[in-house]
Structure formats: structure tokens, C-alpha cells
């Protein structure tokens, strides 16, 4: 039976039929996405988009905007407005469970999860600011709210054979990656335990047991980095399939069993083109656990076709997890329609769709003196202030500037370099994957000490003595950076390509040169700072056209200055 759904103004037609493999009816309805086609604009039905964005104080800002065929500017996506009960349920759980030891995970899995987080957490960034964190062992790892709710919920039915679908939704930088990785590791290890004596034999089979799909190659690297070295500790073999991966490498890994494959939908869909593979459907036949991370991106118009196609290749999935920092009604409806056999169980954090409390907002009106409408002057002023304000002393500062259009990125970067002598890199979709990973390196790694000792710790400010001529009076001064060109500030000018999921490490400053047209993009951009409750600042350059909701969220999210 052919069905059609409209998702993000895209018509998705698909056959809905149950699939049986031999005797056993698979728990997963086959989806043959017949065709995903864009609705011609004139067909776009006028709809009332109620945009509910909760600000920090929990006050939700309801704005009704009638979007007929107005420009996309006014067509704001509907953000899920959760009932007080849903939020309360998650809050009660978070208040009750505060340690990983209180969550149902196999002991070996729990230990691995805590160690991996401790070694990689952005909380290490405060090592650089608060001497008391000199030793990473000082960092006490507790489950974040979304990890409590996710691990608690998924562990309840983790080994049941019926198909279950989950939607994990929590604010940016809240630890969603481990919110699905911990239950996934537990699932794989429990599966092995359930197979007991047979696991020894089965473990030698060529197969892929789980897949994590993300939208970009940077995220393939970032997610894989969490699980890449688990083979020796708990025998979990992971594999990242990204641009540099040869088909032969993928086949070899498959032959030696892949427990966790991290890749993009495009790579999954390319399996059918690999000449070395005679039966492509065999490759994914054993995938039981599938994660769609950054799901609001993978389900939006630019990805939806390849995402649906990739999902339909994994017929035996019985744990399907969508993960996103924002969730809209459309998203939920589409999932429920495509996977009717199991309404996605919502896993949300108590502060979903709110701006992280650790972020301070600064609004700069570019219309007033001395900027007189020049955004670039306002930007230069902000960068000067960041560079000179004494924050992050002894360390290289990093700052990310978001621009709406990639053509503007180059112009802004050139002006900052030529007129203001800043150290600037640009990042857009025109960069190839190698260039992109090179450019973001400075921003996804811990801040570099300005002058390093041999062991990499920051040397204290160079002390310098000045002697007054013909006297024995000398006094201590601190060396200022010698040359005016020496700057402690690394600036990344980019578009939304860097706004989704990238785990910027201890970046304290984000500047919205342009304000995005939707609250979803706004929440993702500002979420590159203030991660895991670290302090962060967001500077928003406004003008008379800036949407009221931007100012409202910023004011609502503003902490006391
Ligand atoms: N329980 C924890 N305690 C301390 N740090 C944690 C914890 N869980 C995750 N982290 C760290 O927090 C940072 C952000 O985690 P992660 O990238 O999973 O956030 P996210 O919610 O996926 O963000 P985004 O929505 O931007 O993708 C990472 O450095 C991660 O190591």
C-alpha cells in the first residue's frame, strides 16, 4: 500500500508492507521510499507556525506567525512544546539519579563509559583556568541529565526483541553522544552474554552489529573518537567509514566483525556500488541497533532522501534511536508515520529548547554610533574587546563567527585580516574534508598555552626587570606581546556547516555576525560554547531587522552581568 507523508515540505511516498524473512516476520516494516520529491513552492499550503521557544527561565515564548507564501524568513519551524508532565517526569528522574552507579549498566560498561568521558570531556578545559583542576583525576564524572533519562529508559527493555524507537532530545553540549553510546555498549555486551557459549563462534562471523549515522565527516571522526579504542578493554570493535576510507578497508573490517560502524547515510547507500560485494543486503543484515545522530539535520530536506534510503537497508533493526538538540512537531509526526509500529518514546532533558544557563549574551546594535550600520565595525570592536579583556589568560583564545551566507564568509574574513590584522580561517562547504578537518583542529582541541613549558603547561608570564640607569633600583614588569601582529585570538568565520554537533573544546566566545532565520539554527550556533555547563559568551550583532525573538531569547537567557 502506497502512502505519502509531507515532511519539511517534501512529499515522501513509500510502500508500507510487512517483511518476512523466511519463517520469522521481521519486527521492522519494510520501507521502500518510492520517491521523495519537493513540493513545488506554490503548493506549499499556508500554515500557522506556532513557535514555542522556552527561554532560560522556562517562560515559553509563543509567537504565532502566519506563514503563507511569505519568504522563508517568517516560516519558523515548529519547535516541540512539551507538556509540563513530560518535563516534570524527566526532572524527577534527574533529581533522583545522580551517579552512574545508580544506572543499570553492566559494571564493565559503566567503568568504560566513565573513563572515556573523563579522558575526553570539555570539562578539562577548566584545567587551564582553575589550578585546582590541575589533575584530570580531580574531575568527578556524573551522568548529565539527558544521560540519566536515556540510560534509564533504554535499559528498561534493552534485550526485548520487539522493535522500539526512541527520540533523544536535549540542549546542545549536554552529552547526548554518551546518552546513546552507553546503552549501545550495554546492548552489545548483554547480547554477547545472552549468546553465552555461542558468542565465541558467532563473534568470528563477518557482520556489522550496530550503525551510528551522522551528517558530516567531522562528526564521523568526533563520534568514533569516543569508541575507537575499546577493542582491548571490552572487546568492542568499531570502524569509521569516512572519505579517506578505502572500500577494501571497509570490507576487511566487515570480515573481522564490526560492532559499531560510524558513518554517513551516503556511505551506507554506496554499499550497493561496491563491486567487491556480491550481496549488498547481506552486509547490513545483522544490524540490530541504529542511531540517527543530529537527526534534525538528517531528517531535513537536504538529507531526508538519503537518510530514509539508508534506514530501509537495515531490515533487522530493533532498536532505532533518533538524537537531536532540537525536536519539532513535524519531526515527531514524520517518525511516527514512517515507523507506526512503535511510536518513538521521548527521552528529553528538563531544559530542552532553552538556552544553556552557562551562556552570557551580549547584544550589540550595529545601527548606533560608532558603527553607523557597519556590522564589520561592530565585529571588529567585539574581537578587540575579547582579545584585550584578560579572560583565558596565558592561553590562545578562540572565537567562532557565524555568517548566514558562505559568500559573505570570505568578505568578512578578508576585512578582518587586512584592516584589523586578525588571525582568521574560513570554513564553508566549498572546503574539502581534509581542509575542513585542518581548519577546525585549533577549535576542537584544548586551548594552547601561549608560552609552553617543555611539558606543555603554560609558563607563567615572563617576568622582566627594568633597572633605572645609574642606580641600583630595578623593578619587575610583565612582558606584553612584543609585536602588535602577535595576537592571542584565533578566529573561525563560518556558516552553519560548523554549527551542528561539533564539540568545540573550551571555546568561550561565539559571535552571531548575522542572526539565523530559525530558533533551531540559533540554538545550534550558540551551543558551540557553554558546553557541559562551561562558561561561554554569545555576542549578537543586531540591527533594526533583527527578529524580536532573537532579542527576547538573548534577554531571557542573559545571566546577570
Ligand atoms: N557526564 C559527563 N560529564 C562530563 N563531561 C561530559 C559528560 N558527558 C559528555 N561530556 C562531555 O561534554 C562534551 C559535549 O558532549 P556531546 O558532544 O555529546 O554533546 P551534545 O549534547 O551531543 O552536543 P551537540 O548537541 O552540540 O551535538 C564532550 O566533551 C563530552 O566529552
From TrEMBL:
EC number(s) recorded for this UniProt protein: 3.6.4.13
Region (Disordered): 37-75
Keyword list, A-Z: ATP-binding, Helicase, Hydrolase, Nucleotide-binding, RNA-binding
Protein name (Swiss-Prot/TrEMBL): RNA helicase
Domain Helicase C-terminal: 378-561
Keyword Protein transport: no
Domain of life: Eukaryota
Pfam families: DEAD, Helicase_C
Single GO MF descriptor: hydrolase activity
Ranges for domain Helicase ATP-binding: 157-345
UniProt-listed InterPro entries: DEAD/DEAH_box_helicase_dom (IPR011545), DEAD_box_RNA_helicase (IPR050079), Helicase_ATP-bd (IPR014001), Helicase_C-like (IPR001650), P-loop_NTPase (IPR027417)
Reaction(s) the record says it catalyses: ATP + H2O = ADP + phosphate + H(+)
Entry's Gene Ontology cellular component terms: cytosol
GO biological process: rRNA processing
Biased amino acid composition, Polar residues: 47-71
